[in-house]
Specification:
Blueprint lengths: L2 H6 L8 E2 L2 E2 L4 H13 L4 E4 L2 H11 L12 E5 L3 E11 L4 H20 L2 E13 L16
Parallel strand pairs: 5-6
Antiparallel strand pairs: 1-2, 3-5, 4-5
Helix pairs in contact: 2-4
């Protein structure tokens, strides 16, 4: 992130550690920012692997429970830099290379603007393709026998 861009957003690049004190950004903060930024991109159906999504589906059925914004996101956070790993499920028909480029750009921009950390890498693992007919509960199957 350029110093000019950082200063426009109220964060001075590299100023998380100063002679007057330091600011520490928790991993979970970067994880949530990355997860939310990835979900903003059209064509991203979900984040997380199969088991993670299955647990999330169970959680959704519990009254008052909320899904984690950081689901499917792993991060490493240092004093000045962060690295992100994402597991995503894409919508069928979306060009994956274009989607990955958009997700990567949005995640980098969001993390750098919100936290002031420099993002050194965003690795994206596409682990599934969502086909609309795969969604449970879309339409009940017609009975074969009446």
């Amino acid at each position: 992130m350029s110093t000019q861009t950082a200063e426009k957003n109220g964060v001075q690049a590299g100023k998380l550690v100063t002679d007057k004190g330091s600011t520490a950004i928790a991993d979970v903060v970067v994880q949530k920012v990355a997860g939310l930024a990835a979900r903003e991109i059209r064509g991203v159906h979900a984040l997380g692997g199969g088991a993670t999504r299955a647990l999330s589906a169970l959680r959704d059925r519990i009254p008052g429970a909320t899904a984690s914004a950081g689901q499917g996101v792993s991060v490493e956070v240092g004093e000045k830099q962060a690295a992100v790993d994402l597991e995503i499920v894409v919508e069928y028909g979306v060009p994956i290379a274009d989607l990955a480029k958009s997700v990567r750009g949005n995640v980098i921009t969001a993390i750098e603007q919100i936290t002031g950390l420099e993002v050194v890498e965003v690795n994206i693992n596409v682990n599934d393709v969502h086909i609309p007919s795969d969604s449970a509960g879309d339409e009940p199957e017609a009975a074969r026998v009446r």
